[in-house]
Each structure stands twice: as structure tokens, then as C-alpha cells.
Design goal:
There is one protein chain. The chain is an alpha+beta fold.
């Protein structure tokens, strides 16, 4: 019985180790993500934020996936720890995308800190330190998160991340750094900004935070 339990545990650990998430850098023209679990994959990408969504899932076999209808998708892993994944569609693959969509890109393995579970844990640590007025600690938590995860953040999520960073700089007395952090999201509030930028349920609250912190960090 113990042998069977041990074998089952090893299988569970192996499956967990094989699970990995990849994302396209935010400046690469598409927002995309690939979840790999063993040989199975799920891929979602959106071009230009607003349109061209692609969705695809299946099993990778010999480095590729085929739908039997003329679409072939190549998966090429690179690096010592397979930290890069290049996805290349060939043939008739447009049926898996909206107009103008594409999932052709090089994806980067998401650090554990930036994956959903890691992000939630980091946010809990940040909030605990911030509410306890341990502002230098809160600042270091948020700085580390930005350094590792900003390149993978969705456009909508960056506003809160940079508001948190700016607030932390403000409470540690570094108004110049506060202003630099706010400059990273200033474009979100410019006249004529695409309406989908302000569609998020928390946008109004974050806009008020931005305006208040901008005033507080002014020279």
C-alpha cells in the first residue's frame, strides 16, 4: 500500500514539475500566454489589446500540433531551462483567431513570482506591510515585483501596480521616484485614450489614486 502511495506521489510531483506558463513580453504587439502541462498546452493571444483573439489547445507531439485540417503549429523550446518558447503556425490556422489575430511569437517562461499564485502571495505581503505602515518593506516588495513581472503584466493591471509603487515611494519620502513611477501610467489618463482602457471595474478608483498621488508628489 505504501509503495502505491509513494508512486502516486511521485507522479503528482512530476506532473507539477512539468507544468509551466509562458507569456509574450508586453511590448511585442500581442498579449499572449501559453500554459504547458506535460505534453498538453493551452494558448491564448490578443493582438493590439482590442481584437484578434486566438485560442488553441491540444497535445504537442514531436514538437508540433496538427489539427488534421491543414494547420500545423510548431513549438520550439530554447535555453538551458527551456525559458524561451517560439510558437510558429504553418498552413491554415486562421480559423483559431479573430480578424487580424496571430499567436506567432516568442514566449518567455513566467517567473514563479509573476504567476497567479505568486502574484497573489506578493500582493498579500505588500498589503500587510503597507497597512502596518512598514513602508520601506512594502516598497521593496513592490519594486521586486515590478522588476520581475512588469514585462508580463497586462495593460489593465499596470495601473494598480504603478499606483502602489508610487504610493510606497511617497511614504518613504522619495517624491522624485514617486513621479517617475506615475509617469509609467500617465498615458492611461490622457484625453482621447481608447475607451477600453477605462472599462475596468476599478479604473475610477485607481484614477483617483493617481490624481491624489500626483498632487502629493509634486515638487
Amino acid at each position: 500500500m505504501k509503495k502505491h502511495l509513494f508512486a502516486a506521489l511521485l507522479c503528482t510531483l512530476a506532473a507539477s514539475a512539468a507544468a509551466r506558463q509562458y507569456a509574450v513580453d508586453i511590448d511585442d504587439g500581442i498579449t499572449g500566454r501559453v500554459d504547458i502541462q506535460g505534453s498538453r498546452f493551452k494558448l491564448v493571444s490578443i493582438r493590439d489589446i482590442y481584437r484578434g483573439k486566438c485560442k488553441l489547445e491540444g497535445r504537442i507531439k514531436n514538437g508540433s500540433w496538427r489539427d488534421g485540417q491543414g494547420c500545423v503549429v510548431r513549438f520550439a523550446f530554447e535555453g538551458k531551462n527551456q525559458e524561451k518558447l517560439t510558437v510558429t503556425p504553418e498552413g491554415e490556422c486562421s480559423r483559431y483567431c479573430g480578424e487580424g489575430g496571430s499567436f506567432k511569437a516568442t514566449y518567455t517562461a513566467i517567473p514563479a513570482l509573476c504567476a497567479p499564485q505568486g502574484s497573489r502571495a506578493a500582493e498579500q505581503r505588500f498589503q500587510a506591510a503597507y497597512r502596518a505602515q512598514r513602508y520601506p518593506e512594502a516598497l521593496e516588495i513592490k519594486k521586486r515585483y515590478v522588476e520581475q513581472c512588469d514585462r508580463f503584466a497586462t495593460d489593465a493591471s499596470r495601473i494598480k501596480i504603478y499606483n502602489d509603487l508610487a504610493d510606497s515611494y511617497l511614504h518613504t519620502g522619495d517624491k522624485a521616484a514617486c513621479r517617475r513611477a506615475l509617469a509609467g501610467i500617465a498615458y492611461r489618463f490622457e484625453p482621447g485614450t481608447h475607451p477600453s482602457f477605462s472599462a475596468g471595474k476599478n479604473f475610477s478608483r485607481e484614477q483617483k489614486r493617481y490624481e491624489a498621488t500626483t498632487q502629493a508628489c509634486a515638487e
